[in-house]
Design goal:
Shape: flat
Distance between the termini: 43 Å
Number of strands: 15
Number of helices: 13
Structural class: alpha/beta
Strand content: 15-25%
Bound molecules: iron/sulfur cluster
Largest sheet: 5 strands, mixed
Helix content: 25-40%
């Protein structure tokens, strides 16, 4: 298998990775990628072995983000190549090299199309790691329509200006925009921008060419219902993920103490992947998830019990008002 690794629609600098491996002198290389890029790993492993003489080991577990470094494999290899995500800057493991995967799709056309749906003159522009290298194309398209596109700075978990993560909207919140344009796929990130900023968000998908607008009401209604269901229960599991970029043990302990002070039974539950089957036999009536916010906000329908984010649990306990609903963002993992 000596062909170049195939990653349809993505640009990945495999040669840079080979150079770094050769330069490091590493003899055991770990490879980790999200599901969408996993198919390239066999060809890349073969290429590494043929061109550097190093032995490779592929992480076969699911990988959800840069928060999800396979630390067990890291301990068994000299160097780990984590493909498809940008470094969160949390130093989770010292021997990890991040090899980003930029999508080839251009952003000019879709941004020009979305401009027709924007009402403001000053627009915050946000995107995900897959498209952020082309964000200037979107800014140019808006400029040509007489608008000013602004991007928030990198910092914290955010590696690039204008980038958002499902768990961090710091770059969006940092700009003084009247409304936002999100360029990317899916509704989770733009919902996060809308909830984190309280502003109107127009979405533009460079893959499907679709433009739309975010309505936060359906999600908020579902979250209100989940809080109400949880309120009538007494026994809560406080979920803590072992994933290095999701592990918020300090927050989990604070949530446990807060719940106990309010007369609830609270248990800390430590696990890697948070999945419905893993909660079934625990017998908890509700859960508070301190790991990835997508578990509670995006996957809720998969669970039989209500799963709340930490700010939602505060609302349930009436230490936070519903009017002050806050999207759960991960600032740090302690
Ligand atoms: Fe993405 Fe969730 Fe990981 Fe944040 S915690 S990087 S949203 S998978």
């Amino acid at each position: 298998m000596d062909r170049a690794p195939s990653t349809d629609g993505y640009d990945i600098d495999w040669n840079r990775a080979l150079e770094l491996i050769k330069k490091s002198g590493a003899s055991r290389i770990g490879l980790q990628a999200p599901e969408g890029l996993k198919r390239a790993l066999l060809a890349f492993a073969a290429k590494i072995e043929a061109e550097t003489g190093a032995e490779t080991v592929i992480s076969g577990d699911p990988c959800f983000g840069a928060c999800d470094i396979d630390l067990q494999l890291c301990r068994q290899v000299d160097l780990m190549l984590h493909i498809g995500h940008a470094d969160l800057g949390d130093g989770a493991a010292q021997n990890v090299i991040f090899l980003e995967a930029g999508m080839q799709a251009d952003l000019y056309e879709i941004a020009a199309k979305a401009a027709g749906c924007l009402r403001a003159r000053t627009v915050g522009v946000c995107t995900t790691i897959q498209h952020v290298h082309k964000i200037d194309q979107a800014l140019l398209a808006l400029k040509e329509q007489g608008m000013r596109g602004i991007v928030g700075p990198a910092g914290g978990r955010i590696r690039y200006a204008g980038q958002v993560l499902g768990c961090s909207y710091a770059s969006a919140k940092a700009v003084d925009a009247e409304e936002y344009l999100f360029i990317g796929t899916g509704r989770f990130h733009p919902l996060g921008i809308a909830l984190a900023t309280g502003k109107r968000v127009v979405t533009a998908d460079p893959i499907t060419g679709e433009v739309g607008e975010i309505d936060t009401d359906p999600l908020l209604r579902r979250r209100f219902a989940a809080i109400s269901r949880a309120e009538n229960t007494g026994c809560f599991a406080v979920l803590v993920s072992s994933k290095p970029g999701q592990k918020r043990m300090k927050l989990a302990k604070r949530i446990k103490a807060m719940g106990e002070a309010a007369g609830r039974q609270m248990f800390l539950v430590y696990l890697d992947n948070i999945e419905p089957d893993r909660l079934v036999n625990l017998g908890a009536q509700a859960a508070v998830c301190t790991a990835c916010p997508r578990v509670a906000l995006d996957d809720a329908a998969m669970y039989k019990i209500p799963i709340l984010t930490p700010p939602e649990f505060e609302i349930m306990l009436k230490v936070r008002r519903w009017e002050d609903y806050m999207f759960d963002e991960i600032q740090n993992c302690e």
